[in-house]
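Archive entry. Fields below.
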Amino acid sequence: MKKINFIYTLVFIGLLSFTACSTDDLEPSLEQNKLVEGSIVDVSNLFGILKGSYDILSLTGYYGRDFIINNEVRTDNCFANGSSGRFTTEASFSYNANSGYMWDEAYRALAGANIIINTDVTKLTGDQAYGKHLQGQAYAIRALVHFDLLKSYGQQHVGGTLGVPYVKEFKGSDLYPARNTVQEVKTFIMEDLNSAFTLMDEAFYDKSKQFMSKFTAKALESRVAVYFGMWPEAKLAAEAVINSNRYKIILAGDYVASWGQDGSSNSIFELAFSSTDNQGINGLGYIYRKGTSGSYGDVQVLNEVANLYEVGDVRAGILGYEGTRLINKGKFPDLTGFDNVSVIRYEEVILNYAEALFETGGDALTQLNKITSNRGASAYTVVTKDNILNERRKELIFEGFRYDDLLRTGKSIVKFSLQQNIASTIPYGDPRMTWAIPKAEMDANSNMVQNTGY
Amino acid sequence: MKTKLNGFLTLLLALLVQVTFAQEKTVTGKVSDASGPLPGVTVLIKGTKTGSQTDFDGNFSVRANTGAVLQFSFVGMETVERTVGASNIINVTMQESAESLEEIVIMGYGSQRKTEITGSTVQVNADAIAQVPVSTVDQVLQGKVAGLVFSGNSGTPGSASDIRIRGVSSITAGNEPLYVIDGVPMNNNNVSATTAGSSLSALSSINSANIESITVLKDASATAAYGARGANGVIVITTKGGKSGKTTFNFSSSYGVSNDAIDGPTVLTGAEREELFYDALFNTYGAANGFNRAGAEAYYLSKLNIFGTSYSAWNAAGRPEANWAKVITNKDAPIQEYNLSATGGDETSSFYTSLGYFKQESTVIGSTFDRVSGALNFNKDLSSKVKFSTRNSASHTFQDGLLEASAYFSSPRAVKYFMPPVQQPYTDTGEINVLVPGTSLPNPLWIAENDIDNSKLTRIITNNSLTWETPIENLIFTTRANIDYQVYNYKNYRNRVRGDGASLKGTGWQAHSNTATYVFQNSLDYTFEINDNHKIDFKALQEFQKNRYYYLSAVGNNFADDDINNLASAGNPTGAYSEFTDWAIASYLGTVHYTAFDSKYVLDGTFRREGSSRFAPENRWGNFWSIGAAWNIYKEAFLADNSVISNLKLRASYGVTGNANIGLNQYQALLGYGTNYAGESAVVPTNFGNSDLSWETSNTLDLGMDFGLFQNRISGSFGYYQRESNDLLLNVPLSLTSSFASQTRNIGSMENKGFELEMNFSIIESEDFNFSIGGNMATTENEVTKLAKDNNGDEINITGTTQRVETGHPVYGWYMPTWAGVDPANGDELWYVEGEGSATTNNFNSAKQVWQGGSAIPKLTAGLNLHVDYKGFSIDASGYYAGGHKVYEEWHLYTQSPSRYPTQLYQGLNTLMDRWQVPGDVTRFGRMQYNAPPWQRYSKFLYDGDYLRIKDVTFGYDFNNEITDLVGFDDIRLFVRGTNLFTWVKDDLLLYDPEVSANGFTSLTTPPVKSIIFGINVKF
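PREDICTED_STRUCTURE:
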């Protein structure tokens, strides 16, 4: 008996020591994450974070679908047919502060960009010139994101001066920022694009177009300058892109097919999507088309758009019919979103250039006809602002440009079709022309000022 | 082996005895109790440590001197003493002890006599749990426990449900109670890999037939032993142990059918829908295009390219009426259960073993659940001092689920309300109409046949302990090791032809996870008595729990054949995902239980120090404690002669418990590596981090009185509680400009308080006829008292489109624009600009959200039960009531808005017929319009949630002994049981099932079921 007890005692003591535990035993594993602190030691770490920011740009709420669709469905190009109930709210201008739109995705993309920008590259191992090139891309992302935010939430078309907070630090000192003015945001964007251009190096030019290159910064600068009517700046920026000789206007014969290809010669920067990395049913293809298998197909083309193109214009090949529904058949052609999404392409820069020349008294006609001559369309004989805007509409349709083009030229959203979701014309300056600051932001940040009308 | 060892020991003992004493003789005899021979009774010569035990037949043999006193003792029996006289034979009949007649309440780490409990607990015993064929055992708690609110999220068998004990204590951390099985804290959360499809509760792996009791611990005194995780209450499940003696078998079998508990809303007929559609065309286009209401059809036919051909085609086909509700219903869905168990044992060991099978079909097509389970519990006295116990269960659960978590078009429940009645389920030749035209919804018949949503859960629980009576008197040492191992498999397939996978020629997703949870416990129990009047029980316990979760899944698309749909056949494998997480909890517990003067006075003290891996090293440990006291007034001398009061106890407790029910690694600022860009891994900051994060604590005061009158013919308890939760683990919204939506912080306070009443009336008690009625009732008042503030000192609220968290109101109180009716002049829907009484507007966006005076938390819940038996016949019934809360109807935009959604794109409810048509109409719905409005949530669709449900009615018959003896059985019982036979809903406008999930929204999940089940129990 004694012996047995002795054995048990041993067993019990063993168990006791086995299970005695301290604070260290409670340290959780971290197998799929790393602590932010101390994780950036090499230039390649910056590249990982940069890809993270690009990935956020490609989400459904941003360039993956919504940012583009919202700028089409609120114009004379498209409407929401209610097939799955998506985008009817936006198409009828009935939104309120409950929807945040791209506010959260946009600011999330800035986290990585700001981490990269505020890293001292000289302290990292690896190719430091490449590190600077990556920092340049981060600056360009920061500029692009704030520009997109400003266009969506700023008061420039609703009679106010407020822009959006310009965030330059990750987990910085001011976690509850107030809104910068439109002017301030514009200045910061231009500064960032300038830094981007300076830091990026042509040696690292990316042929896939899935990453920004040096002249992407100039191309974006031309877009921003056109939006704000900064014509000399727009002209210079566009010229820089043209003179880089990196890009070409896509030829008429290749136009429709180019939408099914990635990294075409006209592409300056596009977001990467593939058969393994895409937004699937929440992507652009699924919302533009119904297909035979029952995709959403909510965003239908207004019947009047069929008359937009003259006979022979290859761009009419983008349009198609599903039954009686006029649809965007050709841009983002894959139903499940395998196609890269163009953020900026050469034709836009040419059109930006044409408009800048027109406004500054240069030879806009030559530039404008560079587009028509590559599209099987008649050449313009005279340049007017309307001709330029009309050509932009034809060229950039379904890519999310129309809404900004209407607003920056002071146009109303006109009710002209039975199909449109709006019951009557939305006059220029109507508060609904800008989104509300999201309620979640208003709840969390009392420094934030709401847009009028919300 | 066993008998050999025993024989050896007996021999050794006999030898020893022989050596020690000279003039002794062999005394033999038989020990029995009221029901027969009693094995395992300790027979000890008083004042020595020598003795024997009775064998299987109750016989014993011991050598003792004449004049020696033999002590017969057995758990639950009064100890008997006999002096050895002239006779060599001593037969003893033992009586149940008074103590054992008293109810013992299992408290998790130990058990206590009911009179000595200082806290608030409710125990549900095997009788109430048995004969309830349920897929998840928590369902039996509804209506049985005052202050426990049970909401089944879905009637799909195996689904996880929401249980809230005494309100809601946390805003963004978990509110689920802790489950303890056989003394060990367990995870019983939803294991399903899909958030879109049916949930699967880990509890569904447990066979309720193996459960001896379920105890719900509510107050701090009872839950403080679980310290950090006790704040939301504790549910203690104890499985059946073995009973020594002749092996007895128990077989039960039941079979029944189930249907939806209530039918739900009625949809429009094709003709009604068409009428509303023409109304809409007339209202929207009539004036501008110069046609009247009668001319609407002609206008439609002239613009088919815009309005679509669904009505013209329907009319051409002779207006066939489709009944989609019937198509998706699995009428009289079968439920069946079979259980076979055996229990028995000898002097030193006992066992319980069981095998069970349960199968239930869902009340919608394409969904089923089954479970095979086995258990083996075995106790063995390794020596007189060391006892070994092992409890093992294994089960395999299969759930063919549904895509039911939202209004997914492929969900049959969505089809019931969304599919136009003018489109047909079958073709003219009787085949499934695969490509239903004119709608985005696929045919549910096709989906049920070709899509897959299967979950499989294999769970093994093994609980092993050794108990050692140490050489120090009254000091008992116990060590326990428990392993809970769950293996989960999920397979999802979407067919190539129609539905969610069609655009990718079929999509597949398979997931595999395993979860292992280990618990090691060591405890010391010491009992100490000062004369007979003071008794103190000490317990010291040390526990370590570790959980490891590993998940692996892959997706692919492009399949060659819908029948061959494993991922190996995916032409385009597109993704692989993995996850590994772990957490650990270490704790040290000390309890003191003091009773004085035969339990007249009871004092309890508990202290627990607990460390959790969820917090930074410097904030990892928390201290939790409670004190409790009870005064059994009825034991006082001044009530001794009282014939009225048979029980009267006052009890009070106060303590601090905790909650750490938040995501893992929240305290760390993290980079995530789970995304990719351009075919390469990408890195994004995923976690804001907060190194200050620590325990959420709750201070609970509990006051109560237990009473019994007239020999407990009337008994009950009345209590009050107040729980203040502080340092809430709150996901405080951050400015989104920080790149994060929220940061988990310890901030904010919330209070829950209420009264609880339990009553039981035993109206008739006699040999042949018994009648009792009982019930419980509880109130809950919840209020948020403090929230985080931003740097301007402004409170940071959490506001959604229908709910808001703000101080002064219940958590997630309803908060939305108030509906002001329909303008009789023009049929506009109207809203109050700033709540009821203010000006009205027809512009939804200029109507402010205001508090609607309530939340989803029921203010009053009640349960009622009734028992009647007469000569073997019995009726048991129970009901449940919840009220004082409000419920919001989801999906009304599509089914109840006067727009294109119900009349052209989807389907509407027939309530829409009450719409405005001409000036002067006073209606619930505005004028029909040809538009697709945005989501506008407002008080029109907020209903009183009060409902009453007759949960079950069981009618049973126990055959009398004459018949059972004839066929050689011990017991035979037949029963028929009805579940959810009747439901009363206060608000006529609440058409969906009123039993909604804890968040307060109706949903398109499978509703609770109404079932009729026949069963038989045989014991032999």
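CURATOR_NOTE: The longest helix of chain A spans residues 128-153.
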